[in-house]
Task: structure prediction
Amino acid sequence: MSSGDVENLGTGRAGPLRAGWAALCLLLLAIPLVDRNDYHLDTLVNTGIFAILVLGLNVITGWCGLLNLGHSAFFAAGAYAYALLNARLGLPFWVCLPASTAAAALLGLAIGSCVFRLRGDYLALVTLGCGEIVRIALTNLDRVTGGPNGLIVAHPAVAVPWGRWEFGIRSVPYYYLTLAAVWLTVSISARLERSGFGRAWTAVKEDEVAASCTGINAASLKVLAFVIGAAMAGLAGWLFAGKQGFVSPESFDFVTSIMVVSMLVLGGLGSIGGALVGAAALTIVPELLRPVQEYRMFLFGAVLIVMMLFRPQGLLGGVRLAQEMRPETERVRQEEDETLAEDVRT
Amino acid sequence: MTLRVEKLTKRFGGICALREVDLVVEEGRITGLIGPNGAGKTTLFNCVTGIHRPDAGRVTLGAPAVEITGLPAHDVCRRGIGRTFQNARVFAGMSVLENVMVGTFSRSASGMWDVLRRSPSFLREEKQVRETSRDLLSFVGLAERAGEMAGRLPFGLQRRLEIARALAASPRLLLMDEPAAGMNPQEKEDLLAIIRKVSSAGITVFVIEHDVQLVMRVCDWISVLDSGEKISEGTPEQVRNDPRVIEAYLGAREYVAEG
Amino acid sequence: MTPLEAFCQQVINGLAIGMIYALIALGYTMVYGVIQLINFAHGEVFMMGAFLGLTVFGAFAGGAWQGNSLVLAPMFIAGMAGCGALGVAMERVAYRPLRASPRLAVLITAIGASFILQNLMMFVWGPCDRSFPGFFSGAGLDLGVVRVTAMQGFIIASSVAMMVGLQVFVTRTMTGKALRAASEDMVAARLMGINVDRVISICFFIGSGLGGAGGILYGMYYNTITFHDGYLAGIKAFTAAVLGGIGSLPGAMVGGIVLGMGEGMAAGYLSSEWKNVFTFAVLLVLLLCWPSGVLRKARHE
Result:
């Protein structure tokens, strides 16, 4: 990769890349015009929902380097926020979007504030624990949340001159809604990536101590990553609930969290394009393998191991990540941190 | 910017790394900190920059003096202290230019909302940051390598990158921890030139170094630590001839005599 | 049953299950001690032990061995050896190549391994609950306020025996000492000529073997096993290991017992639904407040 390209990674998109994105957008917009198969569109909607989830996880884990094994808790927060407001208070779909994102963001704030002090593997476990506690709480607090059976919610509807058009059940409109949501999330991600925040997150991931000494408040950046990643997951949850017509705790378990992690790892930690590729690959392939769908866990597990062993930077991870995953960098950093901690030698 | 350290004490478990150290880094001078291994030099830096919390004593900055004892590292940086590390801790996975750009983050005014809507003020600031960073790279002589991956730079250049990054936060005091370690004589000359340039730019420099010759050449004032205590300070001439210093180094006599 | 009797009964129940957790926890703590990895897949290895034991039992079932407790011997041998081998294989294939990589990479791999193993168990033994044979047919010992069943007694006795055996191994044998040296300081151990690769493999073998034994005891105790039981039991055992101080063998043993009893109390006095929340909550509190373990003295830092 030439030095010009590397610079463009952080500072701006090169011409051809921009054209590529534009072509992809046009292609996605055109799909329902040629293929009206409900099942296909449904799969693409699922891909879109997961893409948003992966983009959210990318902020937390890909950019900021915090392995989050409880992402489905944020997904659940968005979905259940809509479910509760709709089933209990009758609020319509559109009104609930801010509530879903806000609920998830708040949960992200709460969890982020607990974990920012922790080291990598412990942090991962605490997020796992939080995810499980949220799921168990949703299952057990049945008077509020409907318990294991969940809650039924309304599909989104729009008021039109001749009445109400409930389009949640119809694939084509929901496809475009999801596409719009994905586009929004990608735009937000891209803008964040090419800003001071994106660089600061990467700095915190690379070397927290050195980043602090350049004035970066690592703690608040970590919490911020959680808030934003969670908000994106909340958006996905809102979409998911509207499409399904009901929410139940079993959609938000540990397996779901790991699915999202697998998608991110496959596509490339830190890469927006990678997030889309990962989500597409690991939503569409299990659909193709429908007959053996129970073995999807095998697929996700295999993806994780194979990627870590052979291409830790993911399919689209590129130069930036390959450099980072080099063993020497981490070891030098650990040695220096140990020197700082028991500093009696200098 | 003047740095004042008063009766600074730091213990690690049973070991006293710093024992009531008093020292002043006067504004406008290049001050050196030397001492044998284990003297506590890096610990002093760590206490000043907020990586360690001192057990006793005060650290103040500037005139009128502002107390910064025990503040977290990012706060210390915002008060105007920059630092480089013994191991040249650059952000290996980012480009050279991005490394320096990160240094400006603490001073940036763009909030999340500006970023998300790409407001004119954000775009202006990004442009400014990029230009400032390029200027800093030129300052340290790394301009041609702006697009390279920082982790791939040779070690001596990573050191320079660290300096540029530290300068990006607009410090008024720069702490450098053994910047010459592992460098060949030519690289040391280049480093010396950079240090002098930084000082001429109005930034107070405080340097830890093992290369006593280098220190004697570039510093206006030197403090000497041994086993956590300050045993001497003064001009290079005074320190060179101080019997306590010679004794502390025991065997480094030939360096001191020659330099 | 008087409240006192009920309480004492809970203690005994908790002690039995706690021993099982302790055996699994030892696997976590041994691996963490040498290579600082939270072996996510250990919970599945433990479950594999139960399934292997079940299969061996099935091979002997029907016929002269029906109901005979001696069949436990081949079950244990198969379970422990099988799991030990599985652990060593996992280390070779998935963890060793990443030994120099950032820790997060290995953790992700461990999660992947755990998913694969779980799915493998589902594939081989089916997704439904399988019933595990009981032994000792309810015989027991009345000790006044409590009744200890023969099964519980067996669980406690065999666990204690294995733990004592481990302790002897680690303190008295050369290999055991090498293991401890490697946990303290890997680099120094290597410089002393210790074959670190071999030590790590042994560590996995023993840790996984103990987990396998725990799996069989688990099956005996609960009488039903499912392919996804390993996940939850694994988390609980890991919590126990952290409770006692991750990396410390006696800590894992004590942690397991304490957690088992705590869980028993929670189930008995709160509700069984929330008992899992109890475990997760304990885990969170531990990791947030006492990451080096409550029972371990804080190292100077």
User: Anything to note?
Assistant: Chain B has a mean pLDDT of 89. The first helix of chain B runs from residue 41 to 48.
